[in-house]
Protein 1
Amino acid sequence: MNPQKPLPQATPETQEYWDGLQRGELRIQRCRACNRHYFYPRPFCPHPGCHSRDVEWTTVSGKGKLHSYVIAHRAHPAFAAPYVIAVVALDEGPKMMTNILIDDPRPETLPADAPVEIVYETVNEKVTLPKFRLV
Amino acid sequence: MPDSRALRRKVAIVGAAETDTVGHLPNHSTLQLHAESAFNALADAGLTLDDVDGIATAGVSPAQLTEYLGIMPRYLDGTSVGGCSFLIHVSHAVAAIAAGYADVVLVTHGESGRSRVGVGGFGGGASTPGGQFEAPFGVFGPPSMFSLPIVHYMQRYGLTEQQLAAVSVSTRQWASMNPRALMRDPITIADVLNSRLIAWPLHLLNCCLVTDGGGALVLVSEERAKDFPKPPVWILGRGESVQHTNISQMWDYSDWTAAAKITGPEAFRMADLDHSAIDHLMLYDAFSHTPIYGLEALGFVGAGEAGPWFEEMRGAPGGALPVNTNGGGLSYTHTGMYGMFAIQEAVRQLRHEAAAQVNDVETSLVHGPGGWFSATSTLILGNQ
């Protein structure tokens, strides 16, 4: 039996994000009250001190920096180790988890704060995942 | 307005015990680990289950536990936010006992972390935030989630892999003095760095054990606390908070914000103590970096100073401030929600009955996370 990679299931609040990825767009939300982007999707601003419900969807650049990561050696059974589980900080502010697409990942080739950009990885007709690569 | 300082030293732990053994217990179900802990802690206090009128637990529900034990308490707490849940149970029990909601509160932990006997499911579904925004990227248990902030911290403060390893070495030195510890052979920094890579920068010896075991506590009011076989261990201060469940949503990857801003200040304020009054530290060590974040966030050292502090072996036997004297989650035992064992060791130290007893301990601070820096709790305990 081949282990399956876990796949996301959208909710009404996140559907636009997943639909955007299918079209090759990174759609995240921005708060109109405090002018800050945020992630993950929800119909209100999660920033402490704001929590406004006046929010909108925006298409962002897909560029950011490598905020932190691990090189997973003890792997999920559906993943081929080693692979990079990372958190990237988008240029617009929010942080999100992803994988960095890189052959032979080593600490020396993955400096913290390195610039990264999105790669749209189509999994099936419903799911495209946001992966990133070093620029 | 009510002030938590009014509850300083109003409630004491008068019974405390673990399961008969900890480590590999394939003949115990999860619930039986709770029960064995409960019987042992009540015996330690000279009480029986019929004396208990308040219950607190995590992992299993209070309903499962009361059914299994055959009791019907008038106070219950099922706060279940990971490993520090039991610290939070103690914190809540102080208020409950002071309010008269219960006279005798039993806090139990039991977990078949290694043998997986009678264990429920873990994790959420594909439509939860974790299922959508983390699981697809191959996170695989705590080693690949709890560890994610480390590289950012290393970049900001210059923390080295050697310093991370030093935490494991220091903790193993304490474990070597504890006959109940699962891993007792001395290790070196090179041993840690040469051990198998789990999720760089973490090697195997940077990661806690996975064991079976349990522990329980009995708490009563100040008025009753002197009527027990063992001297009371007072709850002097407490703090609790929770911030996220998915590690990608942690506010600051180089700072344990909830500990720095909420749980530490609140615990010290309630206890009316400063850092110099703390004789002993239990800093929940799920991984080598957890005590580093904790030591800084609680203000024992400045930002970026905890790595060198551990490398200088200041928390090791003979050091200025003993840390994790049972051998910690890294070398003593770690069932999955280790917080109960951190409290147990603080109680043993304050009763002067620890395997690696520190001289003249009057205060102990117990601090830990639930999940991956998700929940946070701090307790300050004392014997005076």
Protein 2
Amino acid sequence: MGEEIAFWICALLAVIGALGMVLSKKAVHSALWVANTMINLAVLYALLGATFLSLVQIIVYTGAVMMLFLFVLMIVGVDASDSLVESIKGQRLLAVLAALGVGGLMASAIGAATISTVGVDAANAKWGGNLQGLAQLIFGRYLLAFETTSALLITAALGAMVLAHRERFTPRPSQRELSIRRFQSVSGHKSSLPASGTYATHNAVDTPALLPDGSLAELSVPAALRARGTLRKDMHADVAEVTTLAEGGAAIVGGSSDSNGATGGDAV
Amino acid sequence: MSALLAATSGLGMFGTDPIWITIIKVVFIFVFLLTFTLFNIWFERRIVSFMQMRIGPNRTGPQGLLQSLMDAMKLMFKQEIVPKAADRPVFFLAPIISAFTAFMGFAVIPMGPTVSMFGHTTPLQLVDFPVATLYVVAIASIGIYGIVLAGWASGSTYALLGGIRSSAQMISYEIPMGLSFVAVFLYAGSISTSEIVTAQQRAWYAVLLLPSFIIYVTSMVGETNRAPFDLPEAESELVGGFHTEYSSMKFAMFFLAEYINMATVAAVATTLFLGGWRAPWPISLWSGANQGWLPMLWFVIKIVFFQFIFIWLRGTLPRYRYDQFMRFGWKVLIPVSIGWIMVVSTVRGLRNNVDLSGGSLITRVGVPVAVLLLLWTLIEEIRERRAARRSEVDALPPYDAFAGGHPVPRLPGQEIGSRPIDILMNERNSTQEVPGA
């Protein structure tokens, strides 16, 4: 009874996830729907007695494969939505054919399962447990297929590495070497760059600090902002405002605590 | 006695509880984790304060114990801010995933042996099944989604960078983590947590499988985003990382999830390597130490011990640079774990199939080979470093007292030319007193 209730909940959620994946406009939302479907399928596997498969489904597919998809999609950014222009000719026709093929495969597999039912429980009982049975089959009867698959995956990973590999002509400078180079160079800052200015009205990164002579320290603003030209240069009004405020403040402080100010001055 | 042992071991005892006992256990785990988090935050602040010669929170409640409770209350009533650029549904979903999965992992952790609870004999563990340890890994891998999605949905560069870092980091460190489990599975002959605890009756796997233990402890720090591996929330680089844009209750959920995850990975380390709820050695000689409710105390002490290690690391080590961190994971931890698993499975396989006494096999073949390999790598490493340093020194230009137009001291290993000014400056620099020397 409990199993059936769980099946209907998870199956429904899995189908909703699949639909959501197709219908979402943002790629990241699609990826999330797929993750939802995968997790619900994992629960279904667990209900059917295949606990190992269900956990591996979550660890490998939800945790690693989907996460790598997300990793790539995230770099695209939050506002990006996919273009709906078909870039491969006849893509829709091929998709329909592939869907029909998968449907046919599934129908035949499910049909075959209903004709002669063994059931996971019976299969598990044969080896003394689900895990033991899987181990016997993977490392026994299907060893060659298993190893071939792993070889295929390793080849793919190796291929990706070869494609992404870039030969360096010179060794990469280490942190130490870069530091030595920085200190040996005549121009440029030896320490970190000056911080952006802090004023009563602005403390944003686009507000440069003031040098002792009143000119702007342009290095205190990030290079990207400098290149974009969004530097806040017109600060005379601000400086004037701060100055008047400071003068007023000094007057207030001087007025209220005259004697203290005097003794303080003496001490200095 | 043997009947008792049969009842306290094996997976048959799970799934037989009446529903109300299951509910008690669920509520207990929930309350335990919440209280432990409150304690843990206080514990961390006090220990870090001690290490930095400060006092830390000591005003609210006895010894400041209620400080984290008050902070949590305050956090709940703070203003909730959602950035304009945020992807709202995902922005809301992310902290829920984080907190929800954090609670789930603890379900398979054995906190004690079978006890009598209102007339029912039941193990102090919510649930166990043949692949329970993998369940913890699976839940952890779902938990990553919370952080990654938070980073993406915030619509902010800092948060996005934090999210990207954390997805790469957690995937990378899950591999050595999983590999460190393999040796334990091989020795325990089981993946179920309660059976692994039973298998450690005679010796802890932290002793038997020390390399696995070290690898696990290292990767668990990376997995929980704690210092020195806290790159997804590196405040000097990314403001707050993935939770930069989060405030109020949602931020509290991330905070909670981080501390519960610390407790969970510590509980897994305890279960897999430190004998779970079993009493540590001198106490374990007393036969009553492993019976009844008392083992829960050992369990909690072991978890707190791991929290102390977390805090100690945080108080001691500076943050890794991101590329160093990834290099360490992929080029040190993973190869070392694979090599170690090969050694373990070879010894295990020989013991199972060939009639050799394992001890003599290890001492005759394994240890000399391992020592030779280790020595060889060490010597190679030292040689390489020396060569690198020598080439660096060779690359130094001869001493120029006014290089770049400023008077400069001579660098160690730098040649002095024949210019009188250089010799004079070098003598002046070397005869000057160093303040404080």
Protein 3
Amino acid sequence: MTRQKRSHHRLKRAVAPYLYLSPSLLIIGLLMLLPMVTVIGYSFQNSAVLRRDPSFAGLKHYQAIFADPVFWASLWHTLYFTCMSVVFHMTIGMVFALMLNSDRINPTLRNILRVLYILPWLFTAVIIAVIWRLLLEPNGVVSSVLMQMGIIGSKVEWFSSPATALHAVTFANIWAGYPLFMVSLLAGLQGIPKDFYEAADIDGAKAYQKLIFITIPQLMPIIISISLLDFIWTMQVFPLIWITTGGGPIYSTEVLSTYTYKLAFSSYNLSQASASAVVILLISLGLTLFYIRYQKAR
Amino acid sequence: MRKRHTPKDRLITVALHVALAAGLFFAAFPIYWMLSSSFKSNTEIFALPPTVLPKAFTLEAYAAILGDPVKLRFFFNSYFVAGAVTVLTVLIALLAAYGFSRFNFRGKGSLNTLIISTQTIPPITLLIPFFGLVVSYGIFDTYVALILTYLVFTLPYAILLMTGYLNTLPRDLDEAVAVDGGTSWTALWRVIVPISLPGIVATSVYTFLLCWNEFLFALTLTKSTSMRTVPIGIQLLMGQHAFEWNQMMAMSVLGSLPLLFIYLVAQRFFLAGMTAGSVK
């Protein structure tokens, strides 16, 4: 190869990766980063989107949101919904993973149960919402079985009474989301070296001691990263709540996403909705930075 | 080895199986209830006491869904949009993943971090500017609007998944092409793509599922009944027919078939995709 040819080749190698990446970067830049800048812009305008020449509004829309008790209620509901979901996703996922990993069950049964335990994951949020509405109808199967067992005295309007609605949507979301933890923890359990347990057996360790001193510390990296992701994603849940309760009754299940959606597409106050969307973005970004730092430290 | 036959040990095994059965009930009962309700008549659904098996097994709910061109259109729209996005995403992500996996270049680390962090951008934040853009470009209520928006959400996952897969392939394969004087482009299509099928399948499966499940953007960026997708169709069914529960359940079963099918046929690829976001 001549020198000229070689340098031509080297130039090609230097430019090539950017060419391969360009379609993706173009799409992510134009359709993700640019809209993020746009929504921040909207949040400082009066009548954003609706008018061609919107005037500057300063921090007006942010002030309006922070003065709105429904916003604070939504924030609190989002936190409750998210924390409960993550904690129970983790607990149920862990218990199922440990049970499935036990050598006391027959391998065929284990494989069958593994497939069946993943079931809730295979259904779309809308379908999960519809299923739970049917189950929790005042005349539905849950109410009638609980009444027969004497646990509740009369029919309960799970989704339409302010006292129970938030717990009911949280429960439905707990049911829908544990398999991510289960699958990840099961993979993690299979990666723990067997000799750790053998050494513990020689020392006469009890089952719960092995769980606390070997299994859980070994699974910790998975637990932390899945919890963070689950937290970020659960915070953004929209369809499940939209279809089961629509944020009601009387705002009792209003979360940040339904609050923002209603501002934008029921009240057509797109500027204020943008301000609320920016607040959600900032919370997510904070958590994401945390997540990335954690992943890099690992 | 553990002693297996002490009474205490046997008790633990029995307790474990009882717990497994309880877990199965928790996981599967709601699904079973959907399935069995879809074969009941609407009056039987609320019969007291509830019937576990349909007493009068009927396919009327399925007939009502499959005989209605409006509802069939929802299914067509979902398959069409998800299919189109899958093809586009896989192509574009394959190129990006090849760039990430086979080249070292300035800014690689930060671009990778950027792509990881875009996974967590809240959809509701992008919804408002997308609505503004879609209306101002006159593509409101079109397939183009849905396909473009879905592409943004599927692409980051697809790039990460594909890069992960390409990194597992030995580099000497495509370096051999370079030695023979071939370009990286030839190496990609002649060598990499043919052996990347498992990665491509996993990425396609995951992309398809993301699109199939999408609700928020389909709800906001389309309006006419002929543009709606299955999730919106199910929601519309709730409003329209004053709770034809059996039809809603039948439509939910039909709307879950692609996921169930993919899961049963390609469990390995399905799990690879579903856990991709969490395992870097």
